[in-house]
Amino acid sequence: MVKLKVGDDAPDFSCPDKDGKLVSLKDFKDQKPIVLYFYPKDESPICSKEACEFRDKYQKFIEAGADVIGVSRDSAESHAKFTSKYSLPFTLLTDKGGELSKLYGAEGNFLSPSRVTLIIDKNGKIALNHNAFLSASSHIEESLKVIEKLKSS
């Protein structure tokens, strides 16, 4: 498994969102940092709690100049239902074959995909790589702190 380190170049990607629109890392480069978080499954208890925590803090990320993108192997239809049910204001991407997860070292094991959060700065560099498999929220506050530091530098 690849483990991206702080300072590494973030691999480019293009994945469909809940509406089938392709979203690419290059869409954000030179504009703003992004929080790219990988989670195992829509509607599971920990993943729902995690998504709601990102939702509740989303305005803080926006005010700090960042955006949030969630990634799982669920279908666009599943993402659409999940987004609607929990009023999620951020993008969810479909990583159907798990290629994006592999690229970012978040593929997990035979039981479940990983719960990994990365911060990618506006220059396309990794600013945080946090693995929090059983925690729905520890990485969110840490992510906000890293985003605030990026904002002030």
From TrEMBL:
Primary location recorded for the protein, binned into one broad class: plastid
Protein name as it appears in the record: thioredoxin-dependent peroxiredoxin
Chemical reaction(s) catalysed: a hydroperoxide + [thioredoxin]-dithiol = an alcohol + [thioredoxin]-disulfide + H2O
GO biological process: cell redox homeostasis; cellular response to oxidative stress
SUPFAM superfamilies: Thioredoxin-like
Highest taxon of the lineage: Eukaryota
Gene Ontology MF annotations: thioredoxin peroxidase activity
Source organism per UniProt: Dictyostelium firmibasis
Family according to the record: Belongs to the peroxiredoxin family. BCP/PrxQ subfamily.
All copies of domain Thioredoxin, residue ranges: 4-152
Top EC group: oxidoreductase
Keyword Transmembrane helix assigned: no
Active site per the UniProt annotation: C47
GO cellular component: cytoplasm
Intracellular or extracellular location(s): Plastid, Chloroplast thylakoid
Subunit comment: Monomer.
EC number(s) stated in the UniProt entry for this protein: 1.11.1.24
One family name in Pfam for this protein: AhpC-TSA
Keyword list, A-Z: Antioxidant, Chloroplast, Disulfide bond, Oxidoreductase, Peroxidase, Plastid, Redox-active center, Thylakoid, Transit peptide
